[in-house]
Amino acid sequence: FSIEEIEVAPPKAKEIRIKILATGICRTDDHVIKGLMVSKFPVILGHEATGVVESIGEGVTSVKPGDKVIPLFLAQCRECDICLNPDGNLCVKTDLTGRGVLDDGTTRFSCKGKTVYHFFNTSTFTEYTVVNEFSVAKIDDAAPPEKVCLIGCGFSTGYGAAMKTAKVTPGSTCAVFGLGGVGLSVIMGCKSAGASRIIGIDLNKDKFTKAKTVGATDCISPKDSTKPISEVLSEMTGNTVGYSFEVIGH
Q1: Residue ranges of the Alcohol dehydrogenase-like C-terminal domain (predicted)?
Q2: pLDDT tens digits for 194-210?
Q3: Residues 246 and 161: beta-carbon distance below 8 Å
């Protein structure tokens, strides 16, 4: 990484320029640096943020300057075949393949006269960024930026794993391995889905208090038993764990 002064062009039609208020650092950003994800360079990373609309391009109707928003890296244009399919979840206009440009094939970033590429159509490690209109969600003006920025990736990943992917059912028992930010979000999703028992598992017992605050009914550490953790869970629940989530982060 390097800190550079860049130029951010005005938004074109159906685009929004955002002033970033807060941004999180995700493991995905680290994947790019380590070469584990394809990306063009130089690039402005970041995809987990909160910002305020600074200016809008022609034809933008969903937001106005001054609105607080969260950029979306898995947005929906609501027009392509995938978006119109109720089972679709990967809009053709999302950029998970490292194109590094917006819809017209160009970028809005430059540094010392050279092109700088976008990341995930968001690029939030900057004071200002430009995104497609459909790549933002308007949020409450009172929402604290440093907290709700996590909704852009970390929270939605965990919460969605429970609510949308696993589809946790009311009265069920869930086991959540890993009580970091995403793991806590899984717990919140399980609680919202109506799970009756949510067991958090982590080596670090310092995380147990927060886990119970957001919905865990039990917390255990593998260090406290000589038995495999699977046996411990079986004995605790009578083999009734219906949903298991691995959120360790490795």
Answers
A1: 181-249
A2: 999 999 999 999 999 99
A3: no
